[in-house]
Amino acid sequence: MGERRVLTHSGWICWKDLLEFSRSKMRLVMLVLMPLFMMVMVGFIFPTGNTISHQPVALANQDVAVNGTSLGSGFVAQLEYANNLTEPKMMDLRAATGFDDIKAMVQEGKVSGGIIVPSNFTSNLLTGKQGYVTIMTDQSNPQTSAMIQSVLTTLVGQMGSQVAERNLNQTYNVSLQEAPAILKPYSVQVRGIVPGTPNYFEFVAPGIMAMVVMMSLMTGLPHAISYEKDMGTLDGMLAAPTSRWSIILGKVLAQTTRGLIQGFIILVLSIILFGVVIHGSILLVVLLILLTVFSFVGLGILITAFADKEETATMVMMTLMFPMMFLSGVMFPIQQMPSFMQTISNFLPLTYAANAMRKVMVLGAGPGAIISDVVVLAVFGIVLLSVAVPAFKRAMNR
Fold first, then answer.
1. Where are the domains of the chain?
2. How far is 350 from 243, CA to CA, in rounded Å?
3. In terms of DSSP H, where are the helices of the chain?
4. Which is nearest to 279 in space by CA: 190, 205, 339?
5. Which class would CATH give 55-183?
6. pTM of the entire structure?
7. Residue 96 near residue 114, CB atoms below 8 Å
8. I need a surface site. Which of 91, 144, 172, 299 has the fewest CB within 10 A?
């Protein structure tokens, strides 16, 4: 009978908090808009692959013709032709005179990089040497510079292979079909473990789902508990014939419901608007969302119990949330971080939540592949709740 009464009172408190939340039309609108903004912002800001589009690039052709022959001009024409084949164009080429001219254009923000065809380009090729070109980059923008360097290096290599194939055909009567195998005897074929072409939204969607569930709990609990403590309404509940367990459970259920709703909103938006394909079990994704909620509830209760005011609790929550957002592999892979940051990420529950959801949604993994992540999340939740609940009960008695 006691357990039934606790559950009944918890349901009333949960319903009271949800009604309070639903009375604000702006909150309900933001319940949908916030996940949508996160998906659009993160998905479109970060690059979707090793491609560039309409990057302003300066081109300086300093090649000196030999006996009326300028292979540098042929290189420029080949580069412009290859650039025009892509839609949209990779580069918006702009004429320049040399290194100093390109340097000034980069400093003024007119171009993102440059290509220099040196004066000895033709003479080197005619004497059996390699004809090199110089790619200039803007070090103030490392990511764009690295991408431009990678794309242009690959493009120039492919252009050189085409020239070599034509030379083999003309000089040694090697057919254009045989030439690639002679020049590059080894070939690489890339195959994913699941069908289809991946996009960046498939990478960020699982992480954002876990992150939004975390944010819902970590921001909702300070309002649900600390706000009522500040307003004095918590004292009224404590004076009522309601157990401490009912208050804790009711508050947790309300924020859990809110977190689940936002998690499912992201799941639906990812599928409908962003073409995310879930290769694994939907049921397993739902269970992982529930487990993510469980792993963060204890942390929210613990911080709220020790914070004397809502403002203090919110500040502590934000201090913990932002490092987890950037160190848990939500927006970019953990493997790209420095080693000491990778070590820190191993102690964050959001890392394991995002990793498990990504395995199921993107790779189609089953329960066996995520068992270690599930265990870590469960342990996090159990340990934090075992500490948070007694601390919260003591805080309410003060």
1. 2-47+199-397, 55-183
2. 32
3. 2-22, 25-45, 71-85, 99-107, 121-126, 142-172, 179-183, 200-221, 228-231, 233-239, 244-272, 282-306, 310-327, 339-345, 349-363, 371-397
4. 205
5. alpha beta
6. 0.73
7. yes
8. 172
Q: How far apart are CA 285 and CA 271, in angstroms?
A: 13
Give pLDDT tens digits along the chain (398 positions): 467 777 787 788 788 777 877 777 787 787 777 777 777 776 666 555 556 788 999 999 999 999 888 999 999 999 999 999 888 888 999 999 999 999 999 999 999 999 999 999 999 998 989 988 999 988 887 777 888 888 888 888 888 888 888 888 888 888 877 888 888 888 787 777 777 776 777 878 888 888 888 877 777 776 677 667 667 676 667 667 777 677 777 877 887 787 778 778 878 888 887 778 888 888 998 889 888 888 888 787 777 777 667 677 778 877 888 888 888 888 777 887 888 888 998 888 899 998 999 899 888 888 999 999 999 999 988 988 888 777 776 766 66
Sheet of strand 134-137: strand arrangement: 91-95, 55-61, 113-117, 134-137
